[in-house]
């Protein structure tokens, strides 16, 4: 696999312009924040061009008084967290499974434990610089909290997996650093239904439920409380009382949710096997949706793990079994959904509206993800591709 490592936007622009539209039609690009080491994930079966943004990791503009920071897309989230923490600020990034690059975090738009309190990735992104696949350098958005002029392109880029271009700089909004953050682990049979289990519980800043379909072991939940010392102390006591009434095991595990987890030594990579799917069920239909999901995956013979964010109604279904390589068939339930997903129309175009998104997998999952995009999302991408020479290829899970 050929890898290009530009040292500036101009070098990246020249490389894209020289590669040409024809090359991208034959060899779908991988955009990564580091040296790609995942050729055994099923992506190696596809012809690839690779561009790494690891050299684009500088701080472009930091305005603590305005609660904004602009950084290169190759900067690690752990480094970003350290920079803003020195100024007494915070970006709610807890729960990320790895030390992503900033550009990878925006382009993948993963769900996070703080989404219910601070919003999803698209709420944090104010502006960005994008090198289009025809070689043009474009800048979108403004580094201000309220920006209603024109179409909000940065929101479209969140979750686009760089199909629309390569991010080189990103401007993010920040929050004052909480005075106190405490994290707790809960476990018990009364958490079996994540849609109803937390009724009557004190207010959380972060809540993530963990379980396994078909497994009799009690589920667990990770809870974070953030804010002033008095508020956190009061709610911690209320949480302890609530957990006792529910007969839950209760343990405090520290406050490592203050920032992205630093990675010592070499970069931690995701498993090279298995698959991960993000399913948006909605808060109103969470209980019924999870029951239906368990029925769908019960008979496929894999050991699934389930992560649920009750505050947003989003679930992540993961398995590390089986080699995600070659043309291994996608799960039957995913194929059934993808066969009619494109027929759904929505009033406001977005690349995040699809009920199911493939976060990790082999070529079969990539092809299914292509079909999963709904009518509005496909129309947004079609117009963008026609105007700016975007790359329409099944490579959604490559941006690290």
What does this molecule look like?
By secondary structure, the protein is α+β, with helices and mostly antiparallel strands. Helices cover 28% and strands 24% of the residues. Among the domains are: 2-176, Uridine Diphospho-n-acetylenolpyruvylglucosamine Reductase, domain 3 (2-Layer Sandwich), CATH 3.30.465; 180-258, Alpha-Beta Plaits (2-Layer Sandwich), CATH 3.30.70. The chain is built from eleven helices and 18 strands. The strands form four sheets. An eight-stranded antiparallel sheet has the order 14-11-13-12-16-17-15-18. A five-stranded antiparallel sheet has the order 4-5-9-7-8. α9 runs parallel beside α10 (363-372). Mean pLDDT is 77; it is low at 256-272, 342-353 and 394-400.
Count of helical stretches: 11
Distance between the termini: 16 Å
| Mean pLDDT value | 77
DSSP helix fraction = 25-40%
Q: Uncertain regions: pLDDT < 50 for 5+ in a row?
A: 256-272, 342-353, 394-400
Structural class: alpha+beta
Largest sheet: 8 strands, antiparallel
SSE string, helix = H, strand = E? EHEEEEHEHHHEEHEEEEEHEEHEEHEHH
Multimeric status of the protein? single chain
Shape: globular
The fraction of residues assigned to DSSP E strands is: 15-25%
**CATH class designation of the domain at 2-176:** Alpha Beta
